[in-house]
Amino acid sequence: MGSSNENLTAKDLPSILENDNSVKVAGIDVDGILRGKLMSKKKFLSIAEKGFGFCSVIFGWDMHDQTYIKELKICNKENGYRDLIAVPDLKSFRRIPWENDIPFFLVSFLDPDTMEPISVCSRGLLRRQMAKLEKDGYGAMAGAEYEFFQFRVPPAGATAATDTSPASTAAFLRDNPAQSLPSLTDGMFGYSLTRPVHNQDYFYDIFNTCEKFKCNIEGWHTESGPGVFEAALEFGEITEMADRASLFKYTVKSVATKYGITPCFMAKPKQGLPGNSGHMHVSLVDATGKNLFARESPDENPPYADVAHLSDLGRHFLAGLLEGLPDVMPLVAPTVNSYKRLVENFWAPVTVSWGLEHRAASIRLIAPPTASPSATRFEVRVPGADANPFFVMSAILALGWRGVEKKLELSVPPLGKGEDVGGESDKGARLAKSLKEATERFMAKDSIAREVFGDEFVEHFGGTREHEIRLWDEAVTDWYVMVHFSPSSSLCAFALPSIRGTINVDPTSVSF
Fold first, then answer.
1. Cα–Cα distance for residue pair 497/323, rounded to 1 Å
2. What is the pLDDT of residue 157?
3. Residue 199 and residue 202: Cα distance in Å, rounded?
4. Could you report the per-residue pLDDT of 425-439, keeping only the tens digit for each?
5. How far apart are CA 494 and CA 503, in angstroms?
6. Can you tell me the distance from the alpha carbon of 220 to that of 230, in angstroms, rounded to the nearest whole number?
7. Is 431 within 8 Å of 382 (Cβ atoms)?
8. Phi, psi of 161 (to 5 degrees)
9. How sure is the predictor about 64, in pLDDT bands with cuts at 50, 70 and 90?
10. Is 323 exposed, middle or buried, given 0-12, 13-18 or 19+ CB atoms closer than 10 A?
11. Mean pLDDT, residues 108-120 taken together
12. pLDDT: is 385 or 158 the higher one?
């Protein structure tokens, strides 16, 4: 699917922006978060072709603007947190519907010395992977699915039912336990037709605004979980799909503020409930748009029945995904919380596994006879909704194309229908159980991540994850405030969810 702005040039901008006096621009940091600014039209027109200086600190701090514990190459004290060159992508032009249709452009980040994309530029990384395919005349198509919880924040300082003063979720959670944050709806009811009626203005506003902002939703429904929605974004060319996936999250968060709703894309917001996935669908095409994963005619003697309709190229691509997946886990599961979702018994992919129409495996093959040949694709089910879509799609392309180039063969058999992930029939290795384990493998000297992405990217992104791990190691959470009872010591620690820290008390002095 081509962009309607495909042929837009700087010469077209004065007429397109004739009735505007300002423009918004934004780039994507390593966490997939948009970072940008408002600038005057005059300024924008002057930098539209060659770009402008953008502080590199956005690659030197985490999502809370805390500088990384480890000095990283792209941005550090030694280089003075120097400016990068941010170049607007004119093809990304759209208008922001909830901000009076102000013009909006995405930017990519270049090194000021080489004028090449910096290694950790999200959009640049994906384009580098695409370049490997394009030199052989291939393209890639993708689709993204996001699940996310939604919460209502009680009005700040509310003393009556009529008090509707605005509230901050962060402020509420600072003063209250997380479990007291009310969900948009209660109970479990996936694919409900009646639940969206309860919040229909919000429900339809999201759908319609996404269309206006060119991050169209293809399917939109309730998912199983209190206040959980799922969106399947419109299928399209993979680099445009990554843009639209990032802009979808931006749209949802912006629209939700009008309704006093807080969307939550973290991988596992609630204990005992399913997590938020960010499944990615990918296929390769030739210059005519023909699906290259589809086999011309069924293989009468396939290595496994599941791949009877999958092309040789598709089999190599799948083999590449399976071999490399354990080495790129921080890209698809980037936070400490990500690994709370990737656990057994929650229909979550936890092993190097695949299967035809197998929704519990890490990679679900979608192919005939349950799909048309033109719809043949892989659904990579490991990523959570918290992952950077550019990094996820980059990982899928890099690993899959490596499999094609090396003509890799499938290393594990498919999971059969009814066979559980992690069960006796699952021959695939267990994926990392923590961000620390995943990052150590990602940064290993012989990791496939280094082979496909290069040392500079791995060192920088791995360093950002080491920062995350360090903060977690230093954190004292509610988990430590538990009941400990020992007859020999006569000491108890009581479970107090709102208190951070561990307390040991003499049970005779405490009354509840």
1. 42
2. 54
3. 6
4. 778 899 999 999 999
5. 7
6. 6
7. yes
8. -65, -20
9. very high
10. buried
11. 95
12. 385
| β-bridge partners, 25 | 37, 105
Q: What is the pLDDT of residue 199?
A: 93
Tokens representing 200 are 């229909």
From residue 294, give the alpha-carbon distance in Å to each of 59, 281, 313: 40, 15, 9
Alpha-carbon Rg of the chain, whole angstroms? 24
User: What DSSP line would sit under 361-395, residue for residue?
Assistant: SSEEEE-TTTS-GGG-EEEE---BTTS-HHHHHHH
Residue that the structure tokens 């008090």 belong to: 163
Confidence band of 176 (pLDDT split at 50, 70, 90)? confident
Number of neighbours of residue 326 by Cβ within 10 angstroms: 21
CB-based contacts of 139: which residues, under 8 Å, 6+ apart? Answer: 130, 133, 237, 238, 284, 285, 286, 287, 289
**Does the structure show a pLDDT above 80 at 226?**
yes
Give the count of beta carbons closer than 10 Å to the beta carbon of residue 244: 25
Query: 431 with 326: CB under 8 angstroms?
Result: yes
Looking at residue 479, its pLDDT comes to: 72
